Amino acid sequence: MELTNPGSEVPIYWVSVLICGCIIVYVILRAVYKTKMSKEWRINEPILLITAHPDDECMFFAPFLLSMKAMKVKVDLLCLSRGDYYGSGEQRLQELHNSVRVLGINRVKVVNDPLLPDDPSVAWPLDKTTKYIRSAAKEWQSKLLVTFDSYGVSGHKNHRQIYAAVREFCALEKYFKAVMLRSHFTVLKYCLPLSLFLTCFHSPVLTFYSPFWSIFSAHKAMLQHRSQLVWFRYLYIVFSFYMYGNTFKVFR
């Protein structure tokens, strides 16, 4: 005889209901409010996405990348570290290459510099960070730079340092334009229905939602980063607004 605890099924039931509810809300709002760009804004390619660690591209920028893929706009990726905080840099490098294939990224460059470690307690040298950004942007003839804003979504020091470097670079190189991923309050970041609702009715100049046909591609890309899949990352994958929508501030 198989014994089960009826009460143990309740949390699973409600989690399933919540997940389905989030997806339904997304589908309804996405049907009404589509990707938004101001009429005077024009996307120039190729685009250069600048991140700090392997998995940033899908944890934070997947809706933008999937929108660009649908529009057949080329996006290159500069990742400024191998994500070697726990000594798994080689594995994370392979995971990154698996992820970018899902997201349709064109070219990838990963920096391996001891002065730019994956470490939330270390401030990267601004001149060194700017140097790598300048090198990639000029090599690939990038027209638009995409990265974090001054808070860096999670507050990670490496994210914030990239913002400072891009800002300095664009101040010196007037030819380049840049947009910064808007950081949201914690409640909006992890409450998908509320964040989608508010974003739909009060969205900035640039807002991107994952296309209908690739709604789960962001999840698939994140699942490539197996070394990072601790329990709370699964919650992030399902409930974080950044897996479904991106809003940007125009730097210049």
From TrEMBL:
Keywords: Membrane, Transmembrane, Transmembrane helix
Pfam families documented for this protein: PIG-L
RNA-binding among keywords: no
Signal peptide positions (record): none
Enzyme superclass (EC): hydrolase
Transmembrane segments: 12-33, 187-209, 229-245
Gene Ontology CC terms, in alphabetical order: endoplasmic reticulum; membrane
Source organism superkingdom: Eukaryota
EC number: 3.5.1.89
A GO MF term: N-acetylglucosaminylphosphatidylinositol deacetylase activity
GO biological process, one term: GPI anchor biosynthetic process
Database matches in InterPro entries: GlcNAc_PI_deacetylase-related (IPR003737), LmbE-like_dom_sf (IPR024078)
Family membership: Belongs to the PIGL family.
Name of the featured protein: N-acetylglucosaminylphosphatidylinositol deacetylase
The species this protein was found in: Schistocephalus solidus
Lineage: Eukaryota, Metazoa, Spiralia, Lophotrochozoa, Platyhelminthes
